[in-house]
Specification:
7-stranded mixed sheet, 9 strands, BirA Bifunctional Protein, domain 2, rod-shaped, alpha+beta, 330 residues, 2 domains, single chain, binds phenylalanine
């Protein structure tokens, strides 16, 4: 008895303990043998010895169980120690990804037009002069080309300055009616607080039989769209000039920073310019061979929208990948 108790107490692993259990309580174990030999004893001794054996058996069984619980607890503790991670080593939270504010804004814009059943069209970034300028009523040496100077390849191709060439390609490919937007990167030779050599645009085009598309439709659409983007703002159309639209307008919203009272962001005018638009110039339809149609088009800069929505002061910071800025948009 003493021997068994000591063995159990000294036991250091569950495997060892299991071994002892088998030796004690197994079919050929200590107690099986003792009870077996009980049969050979004289009848008067049997009850006493059996009683002692049962007591010893119960005691050892309880000791074994107690030791088992102890060893399991020890095992768990050991594993917890071993598998413990040093959480200060990796800043897990900073590894959580999120959409860049420009992409977030792009998605929000695109979602609006998808809901209105507009098709999403894309095209090459390296364009022919024809698609980027000529077909858009911007003949060579036209002074309006200066507003969109860009990067040229040796073979005369250029990095597109707007996504309008996608509209030309789409009109060449399919017949009216057309209802499309063209999101994507564009390039210009600009670099200052509000301009970068590469930025993103979303332009839209709607074309249908003559008389079915009006400036009033365009105005309603853009007012609704701008309120979806910026909340309860006032919208103003200002006459302007684009070679590919006639009449043309620039669209302003009441300043979302000062609610129209006048501040630094809106140059104390109370208004923020957000997009360009107009009725498609007949010369553009001529270039793609469309007859008896009319339509409207509009174009916007995604970074400009992102700046306003997320209140980013310098447009260039959207391109720097500085985590201190980006982590604020998770
Ligand atoms: N393509 C013009 C630009 O990039 C934007 C625009 C599109 C203006 C459609 C009017 C109509 O400046």
């Amino acid at each position: 008895m003493q021997k068994w108790e000591e063995q159990i107490a000294a036991c250091e692993s569950l495997e060892e303990l299991e071994q002892i259990r088998i030796e004690l309580f197994g079919k050929k174990g200590y107690f099986a043998k003792e009870f077996e030999s009980l049969k050979k004893l004289p009848a008067e001794q049997k009850p006493q010895i059996a009683k002692e054996l049962n007591l010893a058996k119960n005691k050892l069984f309880a000791l074994l169980q107690y030791k088992k619980d102890q060893l399991i607890a020890k095992e768990i503790e050991k594993r917890l120690q071993e598998e413990k991670r040093d959480l200060s080593l990796l800043k897990i939270s900073s590894l959580k990804g999120a959409l860049h504010p420009t992409l977030y804004t792009m998605d929000k814009i695109v979602e609006y037009f998808i809901a209105l059943n507009y098709a999403i069209e894309t095209g090459p970034l390296v364009e022919d002069d024809f698609y980027n300028f000529e077909a858009l009523n911007l003949p060579k040496h036209h002074p309006a080309r200066d507003m969109q100077d860009t990067f040229y390849c040796k073979d005369g191709k250029l990095l597109r300055t707007h996504t309008s060439p996608v509209q030309i390609r789409t009109m060449q490919r399919q017949k009216p009616p057309i209802r499309m937007i063209s999101p994507g990167p564009v390039f210009r030779r600009d670099f200052d607080l509000t301009h970068t050599p590469m930025f993103h645009q979303v332009e839209g085009l709607v074309v249908d039989e003559k008389g079915r598309v009006s400036f009033a439709n365009l105005k309603f659409l853009l007012e609704d769209f701008l309120r979806y983007m910026f909340g309860d703002v006032q919208v103003r159309f200002r006459p302007s000039f684009f070679p590919f639209t006639e009449p043309s307008a620039e669209v302003d919203i009441s300043c979302i920073f000062c609610e129209g009272r006048g501040c630094r962001v809106c140059s104390h005018t109370g208004w923020l310019e957000v997009l360009g638009c107009g009725m498609v110039d007949p010369n553009v339809f001529k270039a793609v061979g469309y007859k008896d149609v009319n339509g409207y088009a509009f174009g916007l800069g995604v970074e400009r929208f992102a700046m306003l929505i997320h209140r980013v002061g310098d447009l260039r910071s959207l391109f720097e990948g500085d985590l201190r800025l980006l982590e604020q948009f998770k």
